[in-house]
Amino acid sequence: MASLQESLNKFKQQQEKCQSTLTSVAAARAATSKASHSHKVVPVSTSSSSSRAPAAVKFSNDTERLQHINTIRKSPVGAQIKRVIDLLLETRQALTPEQINDNCYVDVNANKAVFDSLRNNHKVNYDGKRFSYKSKHDLKDKKQLLDLVRKFPEGIAIVDLKDAYPSVMDDLQALKSSGQIWLLSNLDSQEDIAYPNDPKVPLIKVDDDLKLLFRGIELPRDMVDIEKDLQKNGMKPATNTARRKAMAQMHGINHSKPKPKKKREISKRTKLTNAHLPELFQNLNVPDT
């Protein structure tokens, strides 16, 4: 009985010891947690902290646009130059490299080859800060256009005028309608030429007999023969039929006339579907068999 009581007492002491150990462990954890919260670093306020913090940089999620920009900047120099020149021609404004980059995504400052090529291009004017489009003839309006055409009595190509200013083609048609210029096509190069119609030049009256003599001259049927006759008389033909025919043969184009189909002759063996109308066949020559 005494031994049993002793065992119980030992068990109670072990339980009390374990309980005290658990209590001390819990107290130590609580103290550690409290210390960590009490020692949290607090930023010291300075005079600069009173100013507003810069806004966070937000990166664009427009992947397709970014890929497009990357493709442009990795394209050949010539392709980038064309984009810039097209932009300058369309806007007709002097643009900085930054404005060019914003409008057509060509980074002129970051690409030395593009910058040098653009600066030395005959279609571009560079004043040290801005790029602008430079046409062959510096024209502003219809009056200046007419004055320029009158300086070229032998004619001036439309291709050299069409980029002078935005409405130049409309002004050319207006000058043609008013009879101040002529617009003729060069049959050899297929280019339009503007000729001045000088009102100071008097109209030349041609005698009727001379007109009849001119119209009575029989010309060769083949244009090649006409061109040869012109060259024999020291004149340069406006066309080059021989070269045009050679180019057509190189590209497999056949200008020869198709052979006419042979008409079928009617014989006694021909089946006539309109036999009930004999008057239709009264004048037909049917060969004898």
TrEMBL record:
Residues 254-267 have a biased composition (Basic residues). GO terms for molecular function: DNA binding; TFIIH-class transcription factor complex binding; translation initiation factor activity. It is found in: Nucleus. Belongs to the TFIIE beta subunit family. Residues 29-58, 242-267 are annotated as: Disordered. GO terms for cellular component: transcription factor TFIIE complex. It comes from Cinnamomum micranthum f. kanehirae. It comes from the Eukaryota. Coiled coil: none annotated. Residues 65-140 form the TFIIE beta domain. One of its GO terms (biological process) is transcription initiation at RNA polymerase II promoter. Tetramer of two alpha and two beta chains. InterPro entries: TFA2_Winged_2, TFIIE-bsu, TFIIE_bsu_DNA-bd. Its main location: nucleus. Recruits TFIIH to the initiation complex and stimulates the RNA polymerase II C-terminal domain kinase and DNA-dependent ATPase activities of TFIIH. Both TFIIH and TFIIE are required for promoter clearance by RNA polymerase. Transmembrane segments: none annotated. Keywords: DNA-binding, Initiation factor, Nucleus, Protein biosynthesis, Transcription, Transcription regulation. This is Transcription initiation factor IIE subunit beta.
